[in-house]
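hey can u check if this looks right to u? its 113 residues, i copy pasted from the old doc so theres a chance i mangled smth
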Amino acid sequence: MALDYTVIGQRIKQARLAKNLTQEDLAEKIDISVAFLSRVERGNSHINLKRLNQLCRLLDVSEGYILNGASSNSENYLVKEFSELLKSCSPENQRLIYNIAKVIADSEKEEEI
């Protein structure tokens, strides 16, 4: 799965604006230039994982959301990823994964009782 840096940049910008931060404010907080942050937000430059982690902490968003739009706050944020993963597995491994997931789900139900 290739990363779309334009979309990643848009998500960073949206999260920054939601926090009412200017590019200058955010760039200063993580010690990067405004020009670099601007290029990242436009998708013209790639951000390394260290800086991404810093951005996400400051903006109160997950790396998963920035990278692929998945919000860990959503109940079904892994449905697409899980579906793609299962498609790549053999039928035998799909059954094994299902059985493991069922055991985990059943044990959670028992804990609730």
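The chain has two domains: 5-68, 79-112.
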